[in-house]
Design brief:
Length: about 350
């Protein structure tokens, strides 16, 4: 593990900037840039091109700016086509972060102009950047923003006990109770225990589930940076989470618990174990991921002592007159969520992947 260089914005170069599309044989070159770029995230990795195209069947347009023969900035994009919500060019669907990474203002402008030209050529409703942090000069009045998500990130302390004591008292008591009850965790090397727990968990929330093959593909594409952590009570698996690793960060990304997990504290213990294990391996930042404002997940992460950091997602209308309200908090979707919860689980697992690929 290592830290990205925190170098200042590079000085403008007189060399011409060329914007190109990532080719299959250039993945290692792209990732070498992402690995050292301070603004880049796990979701800027080239492997997401494979996930978009093979997993979701969405056309990808991974753009990079080349200057002086080197990559100076990247912008991963995918064309999301939805019968429900129209068409959009997004950086990046099914990911919590995106947007331009790297480069000086000239490089960022070149990538932004190329993305807008592509959006117009494709005839999409809007262009969307899922910024985690956005350079102020990047956005002008033509970009729209709406406060919908926050992310939760916090440094990990070098000692496990220190990290436990950093959890607020009430939440820490839940973790200690789970420890005393004999819960334990293990790393799984396939998705056989994870997927049934995750699928049932999202079904109870009224959310369509990803296909089993999505998680298998993630495990293959990101074999160097992906684990599955499962929590057991005795021999019974009660909670499971798929983790991503990027530089010195750990990201618990897809997680769920059984109906027993709430009473045993398995969900809470699962996230503690993700912290503890990451600390033991030398990781220094825990990314709890994004949550929608006003939701239980948002409150849950605050209860762990994480401060919400608003995500400045930005949208530029292309053909659409207004942004679609793709948000489960929208009252229009309340009926759908209630109906989805009533579907038999096998039917929900069969239909869910066909719906979720349109949501992004």
């Amino acid at each position: 593990m290592h830290e990205a260089s925190l170098a200042p914005d590079p000085a403008p170069s007189s060399a011409a900037i060329a914007v190109r599309s990532l080719q299959g044989h250039e993945h290692a070159r792209w990732d070498a840039f992402v690995d050292t770029c301070p603004e880049a995230t796990f979701f800027h990795r080239a492997g997401w091109q494979t996930i978009m195209e093979q997993g979701f069947k969405h056309d990808s347009h991974f753009l990079y700016a080349e200057q002086d023969g080197r990559i100076a900035g990247v912008l991963p994009l995918a064309h999301l086509r939805s019968r429900l919500f129209g068409s959009a060019l997004v950086s990046l669907p099914f990911c919590v972060y995106g947007g331009v990474a790297g480069g000086n203002s000239s490089v960022r402008q070149a990538l932004d102009s190329a993305a807008l030209a592509l959006a117009r050529r494709l005839g999409v409703g809007h262009l969307e950047y899922r910024w985690r942090e956005v350079p102020e000069e990047t956005l002008d009045a033509s970009w729209l923003q709406k406060p919908l998500y926050a992310t939760f990130r916090r440094p990990l302390l070098p000692d496990a006990e220190q990290n436990l004591l950093a959890i607020p008292r009430k939440q820490r008591a839940v973790v200690r109770k789970a420890m005393a009850a004999g819960l334990h965790s293990a790393i799984d090397y396939d998705i056989s225990r994870f997927y049934p727990i995750y699928a049932a968990s999202v079904h109870r929330l009224g959310t369509p589930v990803f296909a089993r093959r999505h998680f298998a593909l993630l495990r293959t594409v990101f074999a160097d940076a992906c684990d599955i952590l499962t929590v057991y009570h005795g021999q019974q698996a009660q909670a499971s989470v798929l983790l991503f690793y990027f530089r010195d960060e750990v990201l618990p990304y897809y997680g769920g618990g059984s109906v027993l997990a709430r009473s045993t504290g398995a969900n809470d213990f699962m996230y503690w174990e993700a912290m503890r294990r990451a600390c033991a391996r030398g990781y220094r930042l825990f990314d709890f991921g994004r949550s929608k404002l006003g939701t239980g997940a948002y409150d849950f992460k605050k209860n762990w002592g994480f401060a919400p950091q608003p995500l400045p997602y930005a949208y530029k209308l292309v053909r659409a007159k207004a942004l679609p309200e793709v948000n489960p908090l929208n009252p229009k979707y309340a009926l759908f969520i209630r109906a989805w919860r009533r579907l038999p689980l096998p039917l929900a697992n069969l239909l869910g992947p066909h719906i979720v690929r349109q949501l992004g």
